[in-house]
Structures are given as C-alpha cells and as structure tokens.
Design brief:
With about 375 residues, this protein is mostly helical. It contains 17 helices and 4 strands. The protein has a two-stranded antiparallel sheet with strand order 1-4. Strands 2-3 form a two-stranded antiparallel ribbon.
Length: about 375
C-alpha cells in the first residue's frame, strides 16, 4: 500500500489501537454531547444535563488525565510515584494564581493589585513570584513549567543516585508531604490553609456561566484525549520499548548500554506536566485550590485508580479513575464513614484477584467464552497495551 495512503503517524497510531479508538470515540462524543445537552435542552427534558452533573463529569475527566499520567510511568516504566498529587496541585495553583489576579478590585477589600488574603494578612506589595500571572499565556507556561521543573530536579537527583522501588515511592510521598506543610504556611503567599478561591472569570468570561462551564468541560475532554495520544505515542515508540525493558529489568537494560536515568527522567517530567494540566483544568471547575490537594492520601488514591482500571494499558487508567471516583461520589454521600474502608478493600481485592484490573477481567471473560482472537487475560491486556 502506498505510504501516502496510509496516513501520518497519528493516523497509524490510532488505527493500531482498537481499545484506544473506542475510548477516544466515547470521549469525543461525551465532550460534545454533554455541553450541548446542558446548553440546548430545557431543564425539564430527560436529555438535559445539569450544570452540576457536567461539572462533576468534568472533574472525572481531569482525574482520568491524572491517572493516565501515573500509568505512563508506573505501568510502562515501573516508577511507582506516591507524590503525583503534588504535580497536580502545582498546576492547579498556577491556574489559581491567574484566576486570583483576574479578580482585581472586585474582591472583598477592593484592592486592584493584592488578593484578599494578602490584604487580610497586611501584605503591602505583591510577591515577585506572582508577577506575570495576570497574563493567561504566562500562567499556562507555569502550569507546565512548575511541575516540570520540580520533576526534573527531583528525578535527576533520584535517578542518578539509582533510587528505585519502595525507596523511591517513599521519597515521592515525602516530597508531596513537605509541599503540603509549606503551602499551609501563610507567609508562603499562597493563601495558607484556605488556599485560593472566590474566582470570578477566566479570559473575561464569567466562571459561573453555563457557557463557560461547558467550554471547560470540552477542554477537559480534549486535554484527556491529547494526553492519551501523547502517552500512547511514547509507549509505542522505540523509547517506549526501552521503558518497558527498564520496567522489567533495569539492571539488564543498563548493562546493554542504555542510560537508564535519562529515559526515566524524560518520562517522569512528561508525566508531571500532564498532571499539571489536569490540575489546571480542575481548579476553575471546582472553584478552589488549597494545600489539601498535596495530601499523600490523594496520591495513593491515584495509584488505586490505575490498579483498578488496569496498569500498563492507559485506557484502563481512564476507566479506573472514572469508576472509582463515581463510587466515591456515591458512597461519600450515602455512607460517608465507610468510604475509606471500601477504598482499602477495593485495592486489596484488586491486588489479589484482579492484577490486570477490570481491563484484564474483561479479557479473561472473553478468553473463557472462546471469542475470536481471545487469549489469556494477561496476553490480551499486553496486546492492547
């Protein structure tokens, strides 16, 4: 077949990924139909999607992008990060700082330059690290740069020192806990315990307007699709094969001459940037960002999302994030005191009986049914990955 007829790399990437095509198709449909149902259908219609529901689904999409970022390093490179909530929060704070600068003199204290919490704390001038956040483009650069630089510095030190396994996991958890304590301090200039909130608009559009909410939802869906494609491109390339080799036997990959720390550092930084984008889209939809997002338990929950969905599949991470967070929404409303026990039990059950997550379970069911092209659950999951 003529190469020009085959299409570009992106086309070939999608065509070779059956599960990914289905996922992208569903995400595209949701990203278009949900906002249209909210804006065009009357509230009494069965087809109407409320603004609350659309915002809730938008949060799920942001969490799904975060799960893809974690699966990229854990599922394909064997880096178990228990601190990715920190990169998510840094991206959220970068967006929150931009939104705070947009309030201007409409705040409680009507100060055109200083956010309300700074006026309350008797600050007299804007800190230097807040400069530039009145510009959207600068804030977007920082959404990528803040988590990316932190990941680069941390990863360069850790990977060069050959810190791996549980020791790396503990260090990443210590990193996010240190940031949690730092951002709680009022003198850090990030709102302390209350964080950043009371946002008014973004790019001149009212954040409470349904049209703005719909645009943010669509942007979240688009970011998730782009994040999936970027991650898929990486793991299916020659670089991705090296990452899998590092995951399976780092010492052997190093013995073959690969600079393992360079590969791990690259994918770690990319993953951190994807997490930052997820945090930036999350903040304007929920209307607040505070140090609680740095909590280590949040990073542990991300690992559970990926494990439940199916580690090393990317699309399984999306499914796991949405399923677990939907369950969290339901159970924290109906049985709030039981949710953490249910979450822990879910992780134990997944570890013992669903090592490939729900994706692997579906492959096993198809294998037992003897469907066309069916194989063992492990083979099927690896083939789709």
């Amino acid at each position: 077949m003529n190469d020009s007829f085959k299409g570009g790399p992106l086309t070939r990437l999608i065509m070779n990924d059956q599960a990914g095509r289905r996922l992208l198709g569903v995400l595209l449909a949701i990203s278009i139909l949900v906002p249209l149902s909210n804006l065009l259908m009357p509230e009494g219609s069965i087809l109407h999607v409320s603004t609350f529901t659309m915002t809730l689904l938008g949060k799920y999409l942001c969490y799904a992008l975060l799960a893809v970022a974690v699966d990229l390093i854990w599922g394909y490179c064997g880096i178990l990060s228990l601190g990715h909530g920190a990169f998510f929060a840094l991206g959220g704070y970068a967006m929150g700082m931009y939104l705070m600068r947009q309030i201007g003199d409409r705040g409680v204290y009507a100060n055109p330059e200083l956010p309300d919490f700074m006026v309350f704390l008797n600050w007299t001038e804007l800190p230097w690290y807040w400069y530039g956040f009145d510009q959207f483009w600068f804030a977007m650069v920082m959404v990528l740069a803040a988590p990316g630089i932190l990941a680069f510095v941390f990863g360069a030190l850790a990977f060069r020192s050959r810190v791996t396994g549980v020791y790396l996991s503990i260090i990443t958890q210590a990193l996010t806990y240190a940031l949690l304590l730092a951002f709680f301090r009022n003198d850090m200039g990030f709102g302390g315990n209350n964080g950043l909130t009371d946002f008014k608009d973004i790019l001149g559009f009212d954040l409470q307007a349904d049209t703005t909410r719909a645009a943010l939802f669509f942007s979240s869906g688009l970011a998730l699709m782009m994040g999936y494609l970027i991650s898929r491109y990486i793991v299916t390339s020659k670089l991705g094969r090296v990452l899998v080799a590092i995951r399976d036997s780092e010492s052997r990959a190093r013995f073959m001459g690969y600079r393992v720390e360079h590969y791990k550092l690259f994918v770690f930084v990319v993953s951190a940037m994807l997490a930052g984008v997820a945090g930036a889209l999350y903040v304007p939809q929920v209307g607040i960002i505070n140090p609680g997002e740095f909590s280590p338990i949040n990073s542990i929950e991300i690992i559970i999302w990926v494990a439940v969905g199916g580690r090393g599949t990317l699309f399984g991470a999306v499914i796991g994030a949405i399923l677990v967070n939907y369950a969290k929404t339901y159970f924290t409303g109906a049985f709030a005191e039981l949710w953490l026990f249910l979450l822990g039990g879910l992780f134990v059950l997944t570890t013992l009986y669903l090592p490939k997550g729900v994706v692997g379970l579906w492959a096993q069911i198809k294998g037992k049914m003897g469907g066309p092209g069916s194989g063992s659950g492990s083979e099927k999951a690896e083939g789709q990955a």
